[in-house]
Write a sequence for this structure.
């Protein structure tokens, strides 16, 4: 059981932080897990997790709110998935020829997501989004990529990173290959495709983030892409298996030419997928003798049996327990209780939960009503001190049951009291310990 006293023991975490940056650039293999993304009192590393709970090096216990950047869609160490992985590992993880499970996983995944005729598996999301771009260029004979500027991550590859402030190390000419439009601004999409020689091969965006699409934006964009011969790509990396088993695009009633999947499709194990129309996907095949070959995705570990076994087991458990509906119900309950808590503390102008019940985020504003990283970090600090590992996002899973929900709400209530004092003082000074968390994509370290 979680201790209700404030957590203040981080001795081993401090030692870990002092060592890890000498071994790993950035101190982590994902920038959003780095020290600069959290307040001073955050655990430096996690030793293990179970369900919605995780433990750090000092033995402190926390309820996990983002669940491995939303990749752990059921719970840490969930036994049916872990057992499937163990059984696959004992049968062998990689072979000279395709494993039988590759066919079984492909068939099940396509039947489940109902998006596309063919699938290609990989180990990370950047691999499949970049593959979608390559397919689009080959299919259309064009070069440029159009992407939604509000959607903050599509790939660590140059075609996307060049659009961020972190463009160091990328040839400047790459910038010419990428164009930007705004989500929910159909006119910005029209402007990109209005010129006859726009040279845009594909348009990529997430079906939804936190703000819902307005005025049939998705449907109108899909229709325009079809009319202009542009490949329409929807990135379900985050939204897949949250809005529905068929993804957010099915929930929002729109279809894409190519769709990318990852994070929450294998309960934290490494499995990502690219699905799409057969006439596009087949460009990466070997059956059309005499055609120019397109080198699509060719990775040694892309179809490792353990990841595919985890994906199959995850799909089975989602269907067995109707987890989508359950997750939405818990999310609705939590958001309602959060809003009541905000009203109780008269913080409506300064704290706002946004998003759909399956994935919500907290906007933190200062005493002037502007979004503020100092205040955001203060809220993170206070939640973490109360045993809730919080980074501004809450993803409710099967493991977030009544006890976990009650603890999160209690921690939020107590944190709001501190937050209110900072708002009244007009500053986080004397409330926030250390520096504020920083944006991942920034020009200067």
């Amino acid at each position: 059981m979680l201790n209700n006293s404030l957590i203040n023991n981080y001795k081993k975490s401090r030692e870990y932080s002092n060592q890890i940056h000498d071994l790993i650039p950035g101190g982590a293999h994902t920038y959003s897990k780095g020290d600069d993304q959290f307040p001073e009192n955050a655990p430096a590393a996690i030793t293990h997790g179970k369900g919605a709970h995780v433990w750090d090096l000092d033995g402190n216990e926390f309820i996990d709110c983002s669940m491995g950047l939303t990749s752990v869609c059921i719970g840490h160490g969930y036994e049916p998935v872990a057992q499937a992985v163990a059984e696959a590992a004992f049968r062998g993880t990689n072979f000279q020829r395709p494993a039988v499970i590759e066919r079984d996983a492909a068939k099940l995944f396509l039947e489940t997501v109902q998006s596309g005729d063919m699938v290609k598996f990989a180990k990370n999301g950047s691999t499949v989004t970049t593959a979608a771009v390559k397919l689009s260029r080959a299919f259309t004979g064009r070069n440029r990529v159009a992407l939604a500027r509000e959607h903050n991550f599509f790939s660590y590859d140059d075609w996307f990173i060049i659009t961020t402030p972190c463009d160091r190390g990328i040839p400047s000419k790459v910038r010419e290959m990428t164009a930007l439009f705004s989500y929910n601004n159909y006119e910005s999409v029209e402007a990109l495709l209005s010129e006859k020689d726009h040279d845009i091969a594909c348009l990529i965006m997430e079906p939804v983030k936190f703000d819902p699409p307005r005025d049939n934006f998705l449907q109108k964009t899909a229709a325009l892409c079809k009319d202009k011969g542009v490949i329409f790509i929807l990135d379900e990396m985050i939204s897949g298996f949250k809005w529905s088993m068929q993804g957010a695009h099915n929930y929002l009633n729109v279809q894409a030419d190519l769709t990318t999947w990852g994070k929450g499709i294998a309960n934290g194990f490494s499995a990502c997928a690219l699905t799409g129309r057969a006439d596009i996907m087949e460009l990466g095949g070997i059956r059309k003798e005499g055609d120019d070959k397109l080198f699509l995705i060719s990775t040694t570990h892309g179809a490792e049996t353990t990841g595919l076994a985890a994906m199959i087991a995850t799909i089975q458990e989602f269907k067995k327990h109707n987890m989508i509906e359950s997750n939405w119900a818990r999310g609705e309950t939590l958001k309602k209780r959060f809003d009541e808590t905000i009203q109780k503390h008269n913080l409506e102008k300064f704290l706002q939960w946004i998003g759909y019940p399956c994935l919500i985020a907290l906007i933190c504003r200062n005493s002037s009503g502007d979004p503020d990283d100092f205040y955001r970090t203060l809220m993170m600090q206070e939640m973490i001190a109360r045993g809730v590992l919080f980074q501004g996002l809450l993803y409710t899973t099967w493991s977030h049951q009544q006890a976990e929900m009650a603890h999160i709400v209690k921690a939020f209530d107590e944190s709001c009291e501190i937050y209110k004092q900072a708002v009244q003082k007009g500053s986080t000074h004397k409330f926030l310990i250390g520096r504020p968390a920083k944006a991942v994509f920034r020009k200067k370290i």
Notes: The mean pLDDT is 96.
